Amino acid sequence: MNYMDYCVDVSVTIKDAMKCIEIVKPKIVFLVEGKRLKASLTDGDVRRFLLAGGALTDLAIDAGNKNTLYAKTTTGAKELYHQKNFVAIPIVNDERELTDIYIGEKNRMEKQESLNIPVVINAGGKGTRLEPYTKILPKPLIPVGEMPIIEHIMQNFMDYDCEQFSIIVNYKKDLIKAYFADCDKKYDITWYDEDKPLGTGGGLCYLKGKIDTTFFFTNCDNLLLSNYGSMLRFHRENKNVITMVCAYKNIVIPYGVVDMGLNGSINSMEEKPEISFLTNTGIYIVEPEVLSDIEDNVFIGFPDIVKMQMEKGKKVSVYPVSENEWLDMGQLSELDKMREKLYDE
Fold it and tell me: Is 139 strand, coil or helix?
């Protein structure tokens, strides 16, 4: 990849800069005026800016780090790179114009930090969005490449030393349990059987008194290619009882949109506008005190549990991620995209 692929003009919006960040590895771009270095921008910079009240339509330079470290030579860049956990060091000339970017050794494997907190997976639904496959297999066992959906999710958490799993099951639960009983890799799983469907949140009633620490809670059709350590730090620093992980979605409306005024007059027209919004990924970080507020064996969605906590005056916050970091395995149309991302096919 050419170093100019990491460069975006200072005039671009945050939304457009994010599209560039999602393409490159490592996830960083440099904001330039001509070729003159002005700032760097990572997804973390964007997240902090948005949480502080910024908008996707604001200029990327407003969110960028204007104190970017740089070097004048490749040797200097390598020395800087290895001093701390830098992901890229720009190399500039005397006019501070970019001449190259040092991004370290290719394919460098980074060990994730150890979080070591429990993970609760709601795997009890029927997976109607994945029919007809789920007429035969339960959604957690739908294969994506070499592993079923649920095992991808578990492996992702295990990269952060989160190895204690509580799995809530209902639909075709015997098949799910049989898979893990015969699985070559042994997992630390505690099973919780729903006697009746309890929605995306009701099954948590079975965990009262079983978990006494912060835990991840996820549906079994979501995978995040994001930094779980950053999420947990955000959760703890903000003293949240629930942190909801949400993804920015950008959708282009494939039509010309007309805003009509009185008597059929046209106020405005826009051809194929793009709209942006935050959507709930179904992944959360939760404090154990939330469990005590969940009624036993009552059907409830977890978003309703979130609302209950908010009504009680408890602190609930959103942790935003880019849409490219969220894989929604619950839709047939997404399975091929997911395989491409996970296996680079």
Answer: helix
pLDDT tens track, the chain, 345 positions: 678 888 999 999 998 898 888 888 888 999 999 989 999 999 889 989 988 889 888 999 999 999 998 998 888 888 888 776 678 899 999 999 899 998 876 434 455 789 999 999 999 887 777 777 778 888 888 888 788 889 999 999 999 999 999 999 998 999 999 999 988 788 999 999 998 999 999 999 999 999 999 999 999 888 888 889 999 999 999 999 999 999 988 888 889 999 998 888 999 999 988 888 889 999 999 999 999 999 999 999 999 999 999 999 999 999 998 887 888 876 666 666 666 666 654
The whole-angstrom distance between residue 272's C-alpha and the CA centroid of its chain comes to 27
Bridge-based pairing state of the strands 89-92 and 98-102: antiparallel
Which two tokens mark 172?
A: 């075709």
- Cα separation of 178 and 158, whole Å? 21
Q: Beta 164-169 vs 188-193: how paired, if at all?
A: parallel
Which residues of the chain does CATH 3.10.580.10 include?
3-102
* Nearest-angstrom CA–CA distance, 83 and 244: 34
DSSP assignment string, 188-218: EEEEEE-SS--HHHHGGGGGTTT--S-EEEE
Residues of the chain with CATH 3.90.550.10: 119-343
In the chain, the largest separation of any two C-alpha atoms, in whole Å, equals 71
DSSP 8-state assignment for residue 59: B
Stated pTM of the model: 0.79
- CATH code 3.90.550.10 for 119-343: yes
Please say whether the beta carbons of 39 and 65 come within 8 A.
yes
CATH class entry, domain 3-102 = alpha beta
